[in-house]
Amino acid sequence: MTKTQHHRACHLCEAICGLTIETQADEKGHVGIISIKGDPLDTFSRGHICPKAVALQDIQNDPDRLRQPMLRSGSEWHPISWQEAFDTVAARLWDIQQRHGQDAVAIYQGNPSVHNYGLMTHGGYFLGLLKTRNRYSATSVDQLPHHLSSFLMYGHGLLLPIPDIDHTDFMLILGGNPLASNGSIMTVPDVEKRLKAIQRRGGRVVVVDPRRTETAAMADQHLFIRPGGDAALLLGMLNTLFSEGLGRATHLPVDGLEQVRAAIAGFTAQAMSARCGVPAADIRQLARDLAAADKAVCYGRMGVSTQAFGTLCHWLVQLINLVTGNLDRVGGALCTTPAVDLVASTGGGHFNAWQSRVSGLPEYGGELPVSALAEEMLTEGQGQVRALITVAGNPVLSTPNGRQLEQALDGLEFMLSIDLYINETTRYADLILPSTSALENDHYDTTFNLFAVRNVSRFNRAILPKPEGALHDWEIFVGLAQAFAARSGKELKATVPPAHIIERGLRAGPWGDKNAVGLSLATLAEHPHGIDLGPLQPNLASRLKTPGQRIQAAPAVLLDDLQRFAAQPPAEAGELLMVGRRHVRSNNSWMHNYHRLVKGKPRHQLLMHPDDLAGRGLEDGQRVRVTSRVGSIEVEVLGSVEMMPGVVSLPHGFGHARHGVHLEIARAQPGASANDLTDERVLDCVSGNAALNGVPVQVAATV
User: Considering 125, 262, 629, 692, which has the largest number of Cβ atoms within 10 A of its Cβ?
Assistant: First the structure.
């Protein structure tokens, strides 16, 4: 028996925690995992580890995980060879596009696509050959408003200022629960210690959320807010900053601030209070406290993005940081200087260059909002989607109106899924192609280093050998591309493995050949615990991608959206609004198939304030029916003073008891899918991002 200790980072979530993994090889050379622990020498995570990382062992050993291509025949699945799979895909997709046009094939890429560098570097090698405009991803049920606001203001959707959490004196968090999410558009392992460090140095943490979350519970102040009311709160704050002369000069080149001042003149704290449910005095005091702090930052996340005014909210967050002098300032909001710089190496992108066929929703960066996917399949006519490719995604559970999407998937001519499981979505596929597991492949995090609270870099070598007959995800894309090119007669450019692409990016990046660090894969190999490249520094002025390299504070599309906001009807008396919630053990639907993540107290229930329970004659622990415009579910309800009255909370990712799902542990879990209630018609009209929070629902006892 041979034991070996390895060091690498977990890439299942945004914290990218460093790990110490011990393996053991038996007499036959088979390698197994003995333990997974946090790496105390990791330069970024400092020994922190979350349950997702420990679950890497469960994923590796999961008997439900697919390990070879699987072809569906009726309700049965059987294995086929890789080449047969590639040829089948090429033939079916080419035939469909020949008969119905290029846009008859749609693509959906799930959240894990940015957690695996093979998907990042080689996804387009095959998918780009299809030349379809029907491209979708999890971005539009998550952070699309972040990207669009940065694109409009700074010229690039990845130029995202990050809270300088380690140096701030005042952190205002709206719609975020970093203790459960490990940051999210703020790569920050060990976030609880970092937030407590703000308090220890005499600073303050303030959370605004319809639920008293884990982060709100440890904050210095928590304010309840009506779901969807964040734009009103932020407008009231920005109005106060202007009207009371609380702004601070900025070194950044800016156009349009006076236009903003004039446009929001009527959105006073007093007027906005009724819209958000936060007292006017508290709105004004938040603005004053943020302006008075030596170093402060306003940060909005998931709850702010996934609402009807998500892009407006993120624009206002950026403006508040700008007006208080905290944008591009130590202790405020700073952009990273990543080792592989996707901002410098890619163009700024485009917005609304085309629209979806049925509802006319705008594209951003070549993708349409996923809320339009089902209707593009179900609505007949020229351009109707007839085939779908899903990559590491489960949109039935993670996008609005999952039952409608199921209906659409059931009517497709062909569906391909690149996935490890037969889940709620992939059960409709004709063919599933599974890649190697996370511990069987290398990884370099190009995305979440871009959002990190420090400039860091590391390369993660595979811990376990690639099984015989298995393919890495990038090899799957290469095989598909070769088969499709041969079938269609298209020219296929040569490619190289992902590590070679990363090597080029490192050498061309700001820490590469032209820098004293001389960062390369060889350099990273000498630093198994990662390399700390230092704290974030002001750099936004030099990185702007706008014409003239000036911040555009008043994009016309956002000034116009103020009129939509002003015209929004008031909330109906007595209505209940549903929001989601996150838990560190169940952020995503894939986490429910592992014993160590589902053990403990159940986390599937609907949370409701005791007064709302009593007003409907309901009791704590009772089974209830929750109904929205699109459907209804049955679930257990729990009374909770954590909830704002008039608001209920249901977590994402449950609802596994669907026919044909091959997830033994997940299927045994109770709970229903929140996205059987969310409405594909309720969107942020600017971006098309789904409004998953603030969904009107009715709750009543089951019959």
Answer: 692
